[in-house]
Design brief:
The complex is a heterodimer.
Chain A lengths: L1 E5 H11 L14 E7 L2 E7 L3 E8 L1 E4 L1 E6 H10 L5 E6 L5 E6 L2 E8 L14 E6 H12 L13 E9 L2 E9 L3 E8 L10 E4 H12 L4 E6 L3 E6 L2 E6 L18 E6 H12 L8 E7 L2 E8 L3 E8 L1 E2 L4 E6 H10 L4 E6 L6 E5 L2 E8 L6
Antiparallel strand pairs in A: 1-5, 1-7, 2-3, 2-6, 3-4, 4-17, 6-9, 7-8, 8-9, 10-15, 11-12, 11-14, 12-13, 13-26, 15-16, 16-17, 18-22, 18-24, 19-20, 19-23, 20-21, 24-25, 25-26
Helix pairs in contact in A: 1-2, 3-4, 5-6
Chain B lengths: L1 E4 L21 E4 L7 E6 L2 H9 L8 E4 L6 E4 L1 H5 L8 H7 L4 E3 L3 H18 L3 E5 L2 E5 L4 H4 L3 H15 L4 E6 L2 H8 L7 E3 L2 H9 L11 H9 L5 H5 L3 H8 L1 H10 L15 E12 L2 H21 L2 E12 L4 E12 L2 H13 L7 E13 L13 H18 L11 H5 L4
Parallel strand pairs in B: 4-6, 9-10
Antiparallel strand pairs in B: 1-2, 3-8, 3-9, 4-5, 7-8, 11-14, 12-13, 12-14
Helix pairs in contact in B: 4-6, 11-12, 13-14
Classes of the chains: A alpha+beta, B alpha+beta.
Chain lengths: 373, 425
């Protein structure tokens, strides 16, 4: 194998795929990235056996071939090479060695045979649909903060993507919950997704997909079966196993019947929560909301650091109410709200609260209150 | 010379060794009596004496508390000790020495509750109580003289009487000017003892003692020291600190100061509990998954009961297993929220246990909860588990029934799973 590629192109591709490689792994070849060169392109592949990422980049290939090298080392080296330089990558000069040349630098990396690199079988992916990358990005952003990290409930460690009916229309829904809060976002069901199974996309795949979307344009293509998902964005293809489990019946816990609306200006609300929460203890992060007429008083006390109060103007017609929330959960939701105002639908101080985005009725957030003194 | 009658707390000088007020012969007499404030209180043969208290028929019988088949002696009463039975001795050996002994399975729950009662009485005397275990603690009575209208020695004599009268067990007390010596003193005159080591006699007293009287000197280290020509504390007193540190490291410095009766550690009541756990050693090793799960459940109930008693809960669950070859395995998981429910602890425990089922036989299983917080933060309603509130309500109902009718009034079927699923052996 022999090829030449511009350093920035190589770095960009490696930057995408090396994130998949776990820092610590018991199987040596999983630390490596597969490098394949043919027909004027370089293809890089990395996998952790649950998730595989493949990226193509244009390169000047003089001799086709393939090998594997340690992904993080390769990435660190390319990162340190001068910007704009041409990198020559070749094997065959020495057994078990990949040679890198760039200007006056010359490096040798030990390789493992590409035949040993595990290939993730995709199987058939019968449901294929596409959406603009920014739409997919928003779908992820507005749900992923609620993904649980709880190991015992592995079926919550991802985003539940499924087709549903909303007011007679078919929608694609993305839902995540960790038991304390829940996020549900939907968009019109793309053609091709009709009849798709409900799938749970694992956290790591969600993160890697989101990373790819940052510097991408155009559309992302999604293909899935009930065990695998494949997302193609530009020159990158990501394939992941899905979580084999049953997502809880979340519809039952969304309190659509709550009847006490509270409207807040999101910016001033978030600013007040942020300020007051500085006082809260790390463990609970409890902020108390006291609502009376059109005034919301946020407060927090901590035996160690003191107390804080801030008042903001809101729109609220019902009787006085006191309710506590985890400040971080409030901020997570506030961050995802695009409109100027948010509407909290309250019931009482121990029941779940519904939060809606004024500018985007398709997003629904549910927040469990916490007891405050 | 200061005096205190241990029975009526009179401080009058005795006549012919008897208290002039009540005639008792149990008189504390010591020149430094009024100046010593650090005490160590140790319950006498605690588990055994609790069992005797609860069953007077045992009063004049040798009693051993411990596991039956392959357990060890946890505690034995003073009658059993006369036959040569000692704690930590394998049960078969103990029974060979004392075949008539009554062996009682430990009821840790009961001992813990009574230990707490003792501690409560201690805290009524001073807030400076540092528990070392369920049945012993340090106390610092400095500054309590005016409050209690007398010297610490007098207050402690009254406390010991009160523990006997209110709780029905006896204790031994050591009084000195630091923790090291107070702990030694409490062991000098057991049972129902009260010993005092003052500043003047500390060094000569220590000189005659073997080195393993000191904390941190176990059998192995003692052998090492004896090999170096240090058998008594007097031998240590003859060596300078630098030499001891050079030879034995940081512990050398402690040996140097302890040998001179010096210990700067203060009584620290702030030693908070970090976790709550329970474990059990099986009569026969177990490899079967269902049987292990069935043995895990009552432990979860036990841990949960203690968390509920103390109005706390935690979010870190640790499973402990010991293989037939004595290899210790611990596995931990963090929950999404703190809990005090047996059901939730059990679910986490089962999750961890499932990965350790591989044909290995285990001799011990245990479960613990750490990351402790107040009960108010435990078991919040769960959006991802709409059944959680109902299960919590069921568990609290069971707790309420048990509180009224006893622990066996209502049990989950899972406790019996072992019998149903037991494979032919």
């Amino acid at each position: 194998m022999r090829l030449t590629i511009e350093r920035s192109a190589l770095l960009r591709s490696l930057g995408h795929v090396h994130g998949v490689v776990e820092r610590r792994t018991t199987i040596p070849i999983l630390s490596n990235v597969l490098i394949r060169a043919d027909d004027g392109r370089l293809v890089l592949t990395a996998t952790d056996m649950d998730l595989a990422m493949q990226e193509r980049a244009a390169a000047d290939v003089t001799q086709a071939g393939s090998t594997t090298v340690a992904a993080h080392t390769f990435y660190d080296i390319v990162r340190k090479l001068p910007d704009g330089a041409q990198v020559e990558v070749r094997t065959g000069t020495e057994q078990g060695v990949l040679q890198l040349r760039c200007g006056r630098s010359s490096l040798k990396l030990s390789t493992l045979p590409s035949e040993d690199f595990p290939v993730m079988a995709e199987g058939e992916l019968p449901y294929v649909f596409a959406m603009p990358v920014d739409v997919l990005g928003r779908l992820i952003d507005r749900t992923r903060f609620a993904i649980s990290t709880e190991e015992t409930r592995y079926y919550l460690n991802g985003i539940y993507l499924h087709a549903a009916k909303q007011s007679g229309k078919d929608v694609l829904r993305s839902v995540a919950t960790d038991g304390h809060r829940l996020a549900r976002v939907e968009l019109p069901l793309p053609p091709g997704a009709r009849g798709m199974p409900g799938v749970i996309v694992p956290r790591k795949a969600v993160q890697e997909i989101r990373r790819l979307l940052d510097d991408a344009e155009g559309e992302a293509e999604i293909a899935l079966s009930d065990t695998k998902i494949r997302v193609s964005v530009g020159d990158v293809v990501l394939t992941s196993k899905l979580i084999d489990g049953t997502f809880p019946d979340y519809e039952r816990v969304i309190p659509f019947a709550n009847d006490k609306p509270l409207r807040v200006n999101v910016a001033s609300f978030a600013q007040a929560v942020d300020l007051v929460s500085t006082i809260t203890s790390d463990k609970t992060r409890a902020v108390k909301l006291k609502i009376d007429k059109d005034t919301l008083t946020l407060s927090a006390t901590s035996p160690d650091s003191g107390s804080a109060t801030e008042e903001i103007e809101v729109a609220y017609r019902d009787g006085p109410m006191e309710i506590g929330f985890n400040a971080r959960y409030l901020l997570d939701i506030a961050q995802q709200i695009v409109g100027e105002d948010a509407e909290f639908m309250l019931s009482d101080s121990s029941s779940p609260t519904l939060v809606r985005d004024d500018a985007d009725p398709s997003a629904v957030y549910v927040l469990m209150p916490m007891r405050v003194g | 010379m200061g005096y205190v009658c241990r029975d009526c707390q009179s401080t009058a000088a005795p006549e012919d060794g008897r208290c002039t007020a009540c005639g008792s012969g149990r008189i504390l007499a010591h020149p430094e009596l009024d100046g010593l404030t650090i005490a160590h209180l140790d319950c006498d043969a605690f588990y055994a004496n609790v069992e005797k208290r609860d069953n007077p028929a045992l009063a004049d019988k040798p009693v051993i508390v411990g596991g039956r088949k392959r357990g060890v002696v946890l505690t034995c009463c003073y009658i059993a000790r006369r036959y040569g039975v000692r704690s930590a001795m394998p049960m078969f050996k103990a029974l060979r020495r004392c075949p008539d002994a009554v062996v009682i399975r430990p009821d840790m729950e009961k001992y813990r509750a009574i230990g707490a009662e003792v501690r409560e009485l201690m805290r009524a005397v001073t807030p400076q109580v540092e528990p070392l275990s369920v049945d012993e603690a340090f106390m610092d009575l400095g500054g309590t003289e005016r409050l209690h209208g007398g010297s610490p020695a007098r207050t402690l004599a009254r406390l010991a009487r009160r523990i006997e009268a209110d709780i029905g067990i006896t204790v031994s007390i050591g009084l000195s000017y630091n923790k090291f010596l107070a702990k030694i003193a409490s062991g000098l005159d057991k049972p129902r003892g009260f010993s005092i080591i003052g500043r003047a006699e500390a060094v000569p007293f220590l000189a005659g003692q073997p080195v393993d009287l000191m904390w941190g000197v176990g059998a192995q280290f003692k052998a090492h020291l004896v090999g170096d020509g240090i058998a008594t504390i007097a031998d240590l007193q003859a060596i300078d600190e630098a030499t001891l540190v050079a030879r034995y490291g940081t512990i050398g410095s402690r040996l140097y100061w302890f040998a001179r009766g010096e210990d700067e550690r203060t009584v620290n009541p702030g030693r908070e509990r970090k976790s709550v756990s329970a474990e059990t050693t099986f009569e026969d090793d177990i490899a079967d998954h269902a049987t292990l799960e069935a043995r895990l459940w009552p432990l979860c109930e036990k841990v949960s009961a203690r968390l509920k008693d103390d109005e706390i809960g935690g979010d870190a669950v640790t499973l402990k297993l010991k293989t037939a070859r004595f290899r210790l395995i611990t596995r931990a998981v963090t929950l999404g929220h703190p809990t005090q429910l047996a059901e939730t602890i059990y679910r986490a425990g089962v999750h961890l246990l499932a990965r350790e089922i591989n044909g290995n036989a285990y001799r011990l299983i245990g479960i613990g909860v750490a990351g402790l917080v107040e009960a108010a933060h435990c078991d919040p309603p769960d959006l991802a588990d709409p059944g959680s509130l109902r299960r919590a309500a069921v568990e609290r109902t069971i707790d309420a029934v048990r509180a009224r009718f006893g622990d066996d009034a209502l049990v989950k079927g899972r406790r019996f799973a072992a019998h149903r699923n037991r494979r032919p052996e």
